């Protein structure tokens, strides 16, 4: 994976560990905005939670 980030300010004042989240996906993942909101809401309400993940429902045969 290649991630390109253009930095103008390394420590923007509005970004903190309390309001910054990383969303990692495979290229073939489909999800709704509501699903992402539910995961973020769960992380915001529990400060002991370090990661959250949705349930995956495979539809193929694994070939």
TrEMBL record:
GO BP terms in the entry: chitin biosynthetic process
Coiled coil spans: none
Keywords: Membrane, Transmembrane
InterPro entries to which the protein is assigned, alphabetical: Chitin_synth
A molecular-function term among this protein's GO annotations: chitin synthase activity
Single GO cellular component term: cell periphery
Subcellular location: Membrane
Keyword Transmembrane belongs to the record: yes
Topological relation to the membrane, as annotated: Multi-pass membrane protein
Transmembrane intervals: none
Main subcellular localisation: membrane
Protein name per the record: Chitin synthase
Organism of derivation: Mytilus galloprovincialis (Mediterranean mussel)
């Amino acid at each position: 994976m290649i991630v390109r980030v253009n930095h103008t300010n390394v420590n923007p004042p509005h970004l903190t560990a309390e309001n910054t989240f990383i969303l990692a996906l495979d290229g073939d993942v489909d999800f709704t905005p509501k699903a992402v909101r539910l995961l973020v809401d769960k992380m915001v309400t529990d400060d002991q939670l370090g990661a959250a993940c949705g349930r995956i429902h495979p539809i193929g045969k694994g070939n």
